């Protein structure tokens, strides 16, 4: 059972009898067929699944460090689709759903910081060959809570 805590669009959902926040499980494909793009700083982690967890955490830390909540914007979770090319460059960033324009602008600004800083990912692979792959970047505005 999901219950909205702060009203429509708050971005925070509570579940079950004890009202614990939901935590999505990271789904990682097996490295024998393909590997996912890796955010810089995690490429030397030997275990594939741990490398993916490191990459996810490092990217989210960068986003939290760079992101600023626009004044007066609503609390929401915003997803940005982008592509990591075989060269490791992040391109084609676009907002996945309707969102407050202030939050959308801020999310795309942070993505531009990645692009203009020429941050190079380790590209994903298919059958051992570097391949362009889609990635999803998550932005949480107002830390997905009311009035913060």
Topology:
Layout: E1 2-4, E2 13-15, E3 20-21, E4 34-35, H1 48-66, E5 76-84, E6 90-95, H2 101-116, E7 124-126, E8 129-131, E9 133-141
Relevant terms:
single chain, alpha+beta, three-stranded antiparallel beta sheet, 2 helices, 9 strands, 24% helix, disordered N terminus, disordered C terminus
Question: What can you see in these coordinates?
Answer:
Helix content is 24%, strand content 27%. The chain has helices spanning 48-66, 101-116, and strands at 2-4, 13-15, 20-21, 34-35, 76-84, 90-95, 124-126, 129-131, 133-141. The strands form three sheets. It has a three-stranded antiparallel β-sheet with strand order 1-2-3, with no helix packed on it. It is built from two helices and nine strands; from the N terminus they run ββββαββαβββ. With 148 residues, the protein is α+β, with helices and mostly antiparallel strands.
